[in-house]
């Protein structure tokens, strides 16, 4: 029989947290959450119990680093905190020793070596300042060029629209002119026919 599967919304409701909290815990604690054939997350009863335990530890004030040790190494929370604190102390001690060694080593450097280090330091500062200035200048130039290009495009588009309107005006005027000429010709032709008809009628009257 298949295990009961919960969607993320159902799992979040059971744990009484938002769905994005479950995804965050999954990522930060490297939890092994199963997925279905479509690649979608689903949660088992064991996952729900695990999330409830994580929530309980969070409410007790434990950090995710300690909770991660509890989840993956079976440590109790107090032991996990002690191990993390011990590791932090060792790291701090290592950093202190390293800084001390570097400081003591620098005392043995010759004046020439110190001057070389100073030159390298100043070169790096100047280079970084120049790069930052170039980036700012490049951004400013880019914005200026972009505005200029947009203005030029707007100008060209307006010019094209004006040309289109002018062409349509000329075409409309030409059509109107042709229509007027045609109307005049038709009118003249009609008047001519009327005159011819009247002339023929007059001749018939004279003949009679």
Which class best fits the helix and strand makeup?
mainly alpha
Radius of gyration: 45 Å
Report the uncertain regions: 203-208
Shape: elongated
Distance, first to last CA:
123 Å
Total of helices:
6
Q: What fraction, in percent, of the residue positions are helical?
A: over 70%
- Would you count the extended β strands for me? 0
Beta-strand content estimate: under 5%
Succession of helices and strands = HHHHHH
What's the rounded overall pLDDT mean?
76
SSE layout:
Blueprint: H1 8-15, H2 19-28, H3 45-59, H4 64-73, H5 77-107, H6 111-207
Helix pairs in contact: 4-5
Give an account of the 3D structure.
The chain is mainly α and 208 residues long. It is built from 6 helices and no strands. The longest helix has 97 residues, at 111-207.
Write a compact overview of the structure shown.
The protein is built from six helices and no strands. The protein is mainly α.
Features:
208 residues; mainly alpha; 6 helices; disordered C terminus
């Amino acid at each position: 029989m298949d295990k009961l599967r919960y969607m993320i919304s159902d799992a979040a409701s059971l744990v009484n947290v938002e769905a994005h909290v479950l995804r965050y815990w999954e990522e930060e604690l490297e939890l092994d959450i199963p997925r279905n054939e479509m690649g979608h997350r689903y949660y088992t009863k064991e996952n729900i119990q695990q999330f409830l335990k994580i929530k309980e530890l969070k409410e007790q004030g434990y950090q995710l680093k300690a909770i991660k040790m509890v989840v993956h190494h079976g440590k109790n929370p107090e032991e996990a905190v002690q191990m993390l604190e011990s590791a932090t102390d060792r790291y701090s001690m290592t950093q202190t020793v390293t800084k001390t060694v570097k400081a003591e080593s620098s005392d043995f450097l010759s004046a020439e070596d110190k001057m070389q280090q100073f030159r390298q330091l100043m070169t790096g500062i100047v280079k970084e300042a120049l790069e930052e200035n170039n980036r700012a200048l490049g951004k400013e130039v880019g914005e200026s060029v972009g505005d200029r290009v947009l203005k030029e495009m707007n100008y060209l588009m307006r010019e094209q629209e004006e040309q289109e309107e002018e062409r349509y005006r000329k075409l409309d005027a030409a059509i109107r002119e042709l229509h007027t000429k045609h109307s005049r010709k038709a009118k003249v032709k009609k008047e001519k026919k009327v005159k011819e008809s009247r002339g023929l009628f007059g001749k018939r009257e004279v003949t009679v």
